[in-house]
Automatic annotation (TrEMBL):
Biological process according to GO: DNA transposition
Matching NCBIfam families: transpos_IS4_1
Name of the protein this chain belongs to: IS4 family transposase
A molecular function GO annotation: transposase activity
Signal peptide: none
Ranges where the Transposase IS4 N-terminal domain occurs: 1-90
Record domain Transposase IS4-like: where: 109-319
One Pfam family named in its UniProt record: Nterm_IS4
Taxonomic source organism: Scytonema millei VB511283
InterPro entries on file: RNaseH-like_sf (IPR012337), Transpos_IS4 (IPR047952), Transposase_11 (IPR002559), Transposases_IS4_N (IPR024473)
Amino acid sequence: MPIELIHQTIAKSHCQSQRQRKLPAHLVVCLVIAFSFWSKAAMREVLKNLVDGLSVQWTRLAQYWKVPNSASISEARAKLGCQVMRQLFEQVVRPLATAETPGAFLGGLRLMAVDGTLLDIPDSKANARVFGYPGTRFGHQAAFPKVRLVLLIEAGTHLITDALICPYRMGERRRALRLLRAIGTGMLLMWDRGLHSFAMVQATVARGGHYLGRVPANVKFEVEQVLSDGSYLSWIYPDRKSKKKGATRMQVRVIEYTIDNAQQPEQQQSYRLITSLLDRQQFPALLLAEQYHQRWQVETTIDEVKTHLLGRKVPIRSLKPREVVQEVYGLLLGHWAVRSLMVQAAQLEGISPLCLSFTGTLHVLRRAVAKFQVVSPDELPLFGVG
């Protein structure tokens, strides 16, 4: 994330300070991203880690920078808002896999996956009012409000290429439809049965993409034509809302298969997939069945975000909704920083980025932050000192 891009984003959001401050906006942006690198540390400790490498240069210039207290950091975050982080995320993230990236493409189509997850946030009145609590059995209230996060990832790199943050009460399926804005020609989108709908199929095809999605057990398909690989052609019909808008049935290819458990035969698991890839010669049923399980890369990505970047019991620190959104975008940008570096390193060695350790890369970055702050004296101070 070039510092010039951060400055441009801040300027567009009109939150640039007119005078030099101890905590200028660009430093606050870096701090919010750094929360994910040192998730268990307090805000002041994260800030100390972030600027630790500058202390050598300040000593040479006989300058001193006193670390602001937590109240000042919170005030600076409130002034920054969440739009800067959102706009920076939208400008930075993009697919990075090339044709040489192992496992990133299938028949020339870039493998993408969509799914959602939930993050616990602090139990404040403001957070509860905006984001809401999940329902529980017997009418009890959950311990924490939750924010819903729906992600679109590049399966071959684990890069999050788009995301939507919303209250818990907003359904995952509705938000996944909005993420299709990032789908285009040359992409194969995979989703689980919870996201199946005619609208998903129609919108993906309308944007020039292809799809490979699992279907719930209660959805039935008539067999129109059985193909030589065991799959068959059928139709998916529009729901009532789509039908009112003039939508008509669309042809699909259905693939059914069962995964056997040799040790526990009674635990067989059946899958039913639908796809827009009708060419059984280029995309045989067995190949698509094998590739569908690449969709689980999105689950691994979610684990990287929630477990490895965030080691806190309540992942998000903020008591106010705007700062919650700000912090979640910082978390996503932190994941981007780690994963994009892994992609670059893997490309140099000609291997898959998935062969590299996410936690190992995170540890390297933590150690390297201070070393990369050795700059020439004319570039100092980066922010107000005193």
